[in-house]
Automatic annotation (TrEMBL):
One of its GO terms (molecular function) is methyltransferase activity. The lineage of its organism: Bacteria, Pseudomonadati, Pseudomonadota, Gammaproteobacteria, Oceanospirillales. This is Class I SAM-dependent methyltransferase. It comes from Halomonas rhizosphaerae. Pfam families: Methyltransf_23. One of its GO terms (biological process) is methylation. The keyword Ribonucleoprotein does not apply. It is an enzyme of class 2 (transferase). It comes from the Bacteria. Its EC number is 2.1.1.-. Keywords: Methyltransferase, Transferase. InterPro entries: SAM-dependent_MTases_sf (IPR029063).
Amino acid sequence: MMLTCPLCASTDTGHFHRDGRRDYHRCRRCALVFVPPDQRLGPIEEKAVYDQHQNAPDDPGYRRFLSRLFDPLRERLPPGARGLDFGAGPGPTLSVMFEEAGHPMAIYDPVYSPDRSVLAGSYDFISASEVAEHLFAPGRELAKLADMLPSGGWLGLMTKRVTDQAAFTRWHYILDPTHVVFFSEATFVWLAGQLGMRVEFPATDVALLQKR
């Protein structure tokens, strides 16, 4: 059965893997791997998983984890650049790290900080750590984020990347039931081209897209 890709809307998709719980399909156009819509969790079940996360700004281990995105993105920002942490989660921390470095921040999370007025603003950079893999409509949502950036602005994404089919079948990342889309390096290259951006891969699991 061919499904519509939630990133590029192509129907040129095929079955990629089944693990006993879910099916995974792969788009031949943009290389996104995705879970069929009818196999996603509902909002109540999803929130129950998110509520188990124990992340906070005073956790040095969590800060080290976030530094994989924070460090290369901060190095590319001018002083005082204003940012948005998209998908900040129940314990916003990346925004705190950027504020400590002199960058005013807004936060948005559809579950824990659902003030959509911040999405009407514009920002010099947008960070999204461990968010992309949760998006039901990544094509629409990532395009919206890109539209909020000026020329030269940065979109920093941290999400683990698909390498090949054999590794995918053994991948712990697909065991989280809230992870429904999986990007590869090729997917980010395709996405950057569609959004009029260029992409860099400065660290493991990190993609930085700059608006042309």
